[in-house]
């Protein structure tokens, strides 16, 4: 091919590319309401302003890359001593929960046993992640995750402690100044003061930016007056310190006044704070949930957390940073349940055989094992990454991955909880056994810390945005870069185009560095290579679908919630497979105890999830023959209009329809057609 | 083709057939334990002894046929007056439940309001299916199903009434003699006496034949002495009349004494009957569940139900006959929930939009609508068939279909219940709203009246047996039949063989009579033909998979529970699609109110279910590349052996593994390999 034809090719490619990609570049410019739904000022900024910052697994995935640094090496503790210390702590916690905590009783009475609360304080569990200089245990994310495995024995305690430290006091850790930290953290760390997080309001659940609570600054600028009602506040009945979010008037650069959210540290003793009656709930019944009302509560100006008007960002940072922990707490609980349920299955006999010999029961045990392994792998991979600070001492932004862990583990808790109850049969339905309580407790996980619906949209929209921004960058380079940059960008775009457009596979699947035969990159144990190839195949199809769907919908993809949901599901699956692979690979290479057992679990998990992804990926093709979008839209429109089920009852018409004139007419018509 | 070659072909075909089918013919000879699991002496007899008897939808399906009589015409009531009367009754019931029944209160207090019980009696709801001559309402199955839609407003009442009449007194209806009917039915019909069904024991749940309760006949042959403990007996605390199953010694034809189950009508006043404390349960809390103990309870000989030793068959007949009703009661409840949840979604605003405008919420509403439509369609199709008596006045055996309806609707109740709660978000988790109670109530549906696990095996094993028996019959005809019979049988077998073996589709898909272009058979509305073709394609693949798997496993298929489960899932899907098609076809042909809305629902349901079946059918291929049988077996064996989760903890080894000697060794090895 001569120089001329090459030039034509490039210029044609450029032209195609422009036509092809132009439509979806505006995808990065979301509507204001969508932006709020993203719940992630944080992540968005990273995408749009600093491409230098190391991208996360999910953002890399969106750009069609597999971040090998996340997969290998699978994170671990630094020293043997760290491990020993951590094991001691978690053993102490485990012992306390098995000996001192009567969850059945606390659930029945919908209250905590005061002795239990004292015990938690003694173990330092009110300050696990507060630095040691402020009297806390100063645990890293990985260590915290490990301790939570034991705490999760009791759902209500888990929620109470999370409300206290994962969200209640987290704002002070993240955005508090030195004075605020010194004033509040020591007594919060001991549990002398208990914290709560006050964001949700009657008209503002998932949509956190729409709160109505308001704070107005006194004329002397020294005190804010807080007014408004917060609902479903965990620990709301007794919390001493509350992180409260309220609308405040902020002067913009152009002098305009605008309502913006500000975060405040509010002490109950400030006055004007009243709590409602505790809510009666399906589960986590011992935990306290109630409304908190602020009526002219005076808050000193120095109790503003971060900047005035910067509260929304703080709220999202707090929520984003805490979600990862659901993975290990669910895995811990499910591991205990697996043990008791297997005990039951191996002792109960029906039809002359132990339950555990029934294939249909074994399948439940197997499925639960795979889910535990995946939740555990994802949780520690994410926690481990969060523990790696950059040169400025900042943790990376793992908000998308944390959301994935939260979605996956909450759904595992719910489905496995139900299956455990099912293995027990009628016995499981009775309050004599703990399974029904565990199932009730698990149900909240799908709702709080961001509903799984909103989080799925968050995961998918963040990834779409990043994919769009990356393409925009490449196009820009192809137009304006220097010689080499330009050439690379053009060839990249061309390859992208060819891959996406070609239905036949005349270009080989990419290896993404996971199974490539380069010694430096091949970190995979031989027995893991096949699994690696499955992940790569999924990643390859995933990126093709991103491009196809961005091209199809352009910026309107933000309104295609079912498409976004499917993307999120696939991405979560890929993240889970990668975590499982990374962990099992480590186990195999180091010949860890039971590593062959792990290999079976990892292989099966990846096989099943790969297959699941194939079905999901197929549904993103256009046209997809089983698409029901049109039917769904029309059916829902009608139901939403009338607000009820609209089909006529099956018994509504009594004629035997062979005798019905319309039917006879129909028959006649068919006869005529055939003549 | 000359006569000679035709003969060779036939004899070769015969030889292939023999080799091919011989292995799985013994499938009909199940082990004793498997036979019990079938829970269906009833259905099994039909298969093995009387092929003349009209087969049911499921048995036809097993033999590779689509029973058009079930699909068209979709059943309905006889006259306008019937409909009017039924609507009056169900309106009365609906009004009663909405005005007089405080389910929240009864749930909280775990007790029925006596005024409610009186109201139920006044409406005759204790005797809905008892013939009018005995003081009942004498409702047909279809009518009963309709009334249950309203009763299901309260889960606990539904269960109490079902325990009374669907199982408690059903034995007297089915197997009682004239004296027994006259003595008991009138007072049971008014609710003066309340009935219970006493089968389950501590060591005998799903395995009903293994009960330990024993009855011994007095020397004068006039009285049985009953001893044993029954558990989880609904209404057990106050029931006046109990159908009790106990082991009795029966003399076999050969003079041997054998333990066989006998059913007794036991009055509480006979003495020696004590009830345990009410169980504290997850849901249906107002209903009474407790143990019932019999200590030397004297039962007059005339209170034996049916024959001595015939009790197991009666128990199974009772259970099999009642299950269909779960379909309409679930559909009724879900219809009401759809209305309230849509009301919420159209009033709650988040992110500046009504919840009902979110695609992800609409999808939940749509999915729920499809499930309601399917459950309703299956329930009334089954009830309608059960109302068609044969020339002897006997109802057909619809036990497989009833089990399918039970499985489908219980799972719809559970998943939709959870989604409704999810749409409400945090609000749904609170006891202020009814959703958490409905979810708790729904959970029992997956367990009682036969766990869905056992019922899936029952469905699949029954179908496999029938398929095996049919083939045996054909092979016999091919060997011993007269000329024409023999020829037909041989050609049938040959066609079967060709279809199953040929991977390419050189034989066209069969029409099964649903979409065939014969005027007399084309009962389908034009707009339904595509849906019909999808069902036919599923049926065609289904029969091929039956033959392939029977060939592969032979009689050992009974131990392949996951294969059986998959067969059951596909069969349930086909049954649901057929019911939906039949119902919607009627609606379209008669231009019923909202029939176009129904058409959208039916089309989408069939498309989605067809696709789901494709995935399930693929997993029955051999080899199936994503099969995890081996992994599952080995992982479960290890877990069951140790009774706990076995993987080493992700943090267990602290070495950073790039520095680990084993890893370095691994690297070295790879280097060597490449050189």
UniProtKB/TrEMBL annotation, chains A, B:
Sequence ranges assigned to domain Acyl-CoA dehydrogenase/oxidase N-terminal in this UniProt record: 85-192
Reported cofactor(s): FAD
Membrane-topology annotation of the record: Peripheral membrane protein
Protein location: Mitochondrion inner membrane
Domain Acyl-CoA dehydrogenase/oxidase C-terminal: 309-462
Classification via PROSITE patterns: ACYL_COA_DH_1, ACYL_COA_DH_2
Family matches, as Gene3D superfamilies: Acyl-CoA dehydrogenase/oxidase, N-terminal domain, Butyryl-CoA Dehydrogenase, subunit A, domain 2, Butyryl-CoA Dehydrogenase, subunit A, domain 3
Chief subcellular location: mitochondrion
Domain of life: Eukaryota
Domain Acyl-CoA oxidase/dehydrogenase middle: 196-296
Record-linked Pfam families: ACAD9-ACADV_C, Acyl-CoA_dh_1, Acyl-CoA_dh_M, Acyl-CoA_dh_N
CDD domains, sorted: VLCAD (cd01161)
Sorted UniProt keywords: FAD, Flavoprotein, Membrane, Mitochondrion, Mitochondrion inner membrane, Oxidoreductase, Phosphoprotein, Transit peptide
Spans through the membrane: none
Catalytic activity entry: eicosanoyl-CoA + oxidized [electron-transfer flavoprotein] + H(+) = (2E)-eicosenoyl-CoA + reduced [electron-transfer flavoprotein]; octadecanoyl-CoA + oxidized [electron-transfer flavoprotein] + H(+) = (2E)-octadecenoyl-CoA + reduced [electron-transfer flavoprotein]
Domain ACAD9/ACADV-like C-terminal intervals: 527-644
Family membership: Belongs to the acyl-CoA dehydrogenase family.
The name this protein goes by in its record: Uncharacterized protein
UniProt organism field: Clavelina lepadiformis
């Amino acid at each position: 091919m001569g120089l001329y034809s090459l030039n034509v090719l490039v210029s044609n490619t450029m032209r195609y590319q422009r036509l092809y990609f132009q439509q979806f570049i505006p995808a990065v410019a979301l509507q204001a309401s969508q932006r709020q739904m993203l719940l992630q000022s944080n992540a968005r900024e990273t995408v749009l302003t600093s491409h230098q910052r190391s991208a996360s697994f999910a953002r890399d995935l969106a750009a069609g890359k597999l971040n090998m640094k996340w997969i290998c090496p699978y994170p671990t503790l630094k020293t043997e001593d760290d491990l020993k210390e951590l094991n001691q702590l978690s053993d102490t916690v485990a012992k306390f929960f098995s000996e001192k905590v009567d969850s059945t009783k606390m659930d029945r009475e919908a209250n905590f046993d005061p002795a239990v609360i004292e015990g938690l304080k003694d173990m330092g569990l009110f300050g696990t992640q507060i630095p040691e200089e402020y009297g806390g245990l100063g645990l890293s994310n990985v260590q915290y995750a490990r301790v939570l495995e034991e705490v999760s024995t009791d759902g209500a305690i888990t929620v109470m402690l999370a409300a206290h430290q994962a969200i209640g006091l987290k704002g002070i850790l993240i955005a508090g100044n030195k004075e605020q930290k010194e004033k509040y953290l020591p007594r919060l760390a001991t549990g002398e003061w208990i914290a709560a997080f006050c964001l949700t309001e009657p008209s503002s659940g998932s949509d956190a930016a729409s709160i109505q609570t308001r704070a107005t600054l006194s004329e002397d600028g020294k005190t804010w007056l807080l007014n408004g009602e917060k609902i479903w506040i965990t620990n709301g009945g007794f919390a001493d310190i509350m992180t409260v979010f309220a609308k405040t008037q902020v002067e913009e650069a152009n002098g305009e006044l605008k309502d913006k959210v500000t975060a405040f540290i509010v002490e109950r003793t400030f006055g004007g704070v009243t709590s409602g009656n505790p809510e009666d709930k399906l589960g986590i019944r011992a935990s306290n949930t109630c409304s908190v009302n602020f009526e002219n509560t005076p808050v000193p100006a120095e109790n503003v957390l971060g900047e005035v008007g910067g509260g929304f960002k703080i709220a999202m940072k707090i929520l984003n940073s805490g979600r990862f922990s659901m993975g290990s707490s669910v895995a811990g609980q499910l591991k205990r349940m697996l043990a008791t349920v297997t005990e039951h299955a191996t002792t109960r006999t029906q039809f002359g055989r132990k339950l555990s010999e029934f294939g249909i029961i074994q399948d439940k045990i197997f499925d639960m094992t795979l889910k535990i392994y995946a939740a555990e792998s994802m949780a520690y991979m994410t926690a481990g990454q969060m523990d790696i600070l950059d040169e400025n001492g900042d943790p990376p932004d793992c908000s998308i991955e944390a959301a994935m862990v939260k979605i996956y583990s909450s759904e595992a808790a719910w489905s496995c909880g139900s299956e455990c109850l099912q293995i027990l049969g009628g016995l499981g339905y009775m309050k004599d056994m703990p399974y029904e309580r565990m199932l009730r407790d698990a149900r909240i996980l799908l709702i709080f810390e961001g509903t799984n619906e909103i989080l799925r949209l968050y995961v998918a929209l963040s990834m779409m945005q990043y994919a769009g921004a990356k393409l925009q960058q490449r196009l820009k380079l192809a137009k304006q870069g220097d010689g080499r940059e330009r050439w690379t960008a053009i060839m990249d775009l061309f390859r992208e185009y060819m891959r996406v457009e070609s239905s036949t596979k005349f270009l080989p699947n990419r290896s993404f560095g996971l199974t490539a035969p380069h010694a430096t990159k091949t970190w995979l144990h031989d027995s893991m290579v096949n699994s690696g190839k499955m992940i790569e195949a999924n990643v390859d199809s995933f990126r093709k679908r991103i491009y196809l769907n961005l091209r199809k919908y352009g910026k309107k993809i933000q309104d295609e919630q079912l498409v976004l949901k499917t993307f999120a599901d696939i991405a979560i699956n890929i993240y889970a497979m990668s975590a499982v692979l990374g962990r099992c690979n480590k186990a195999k290479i180091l010949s860890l105890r039971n590593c062959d057992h792990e290999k079976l679990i990892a292989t099966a998990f990846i096989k099943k999830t790969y297959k699941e992804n194939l079905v999901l990926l197929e549904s993103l093709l256009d046209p997809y023959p089983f698409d029901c979008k049109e039917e769904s839209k029309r059916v829902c429109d009608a139901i939403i209009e009338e607000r009820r089920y609209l089909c006529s009852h099956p018994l509504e018409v009594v004629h035997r329809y062979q005798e019905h004139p319309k039917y006879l007419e129909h028959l006649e018509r068919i006869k005529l057609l055939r003549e």
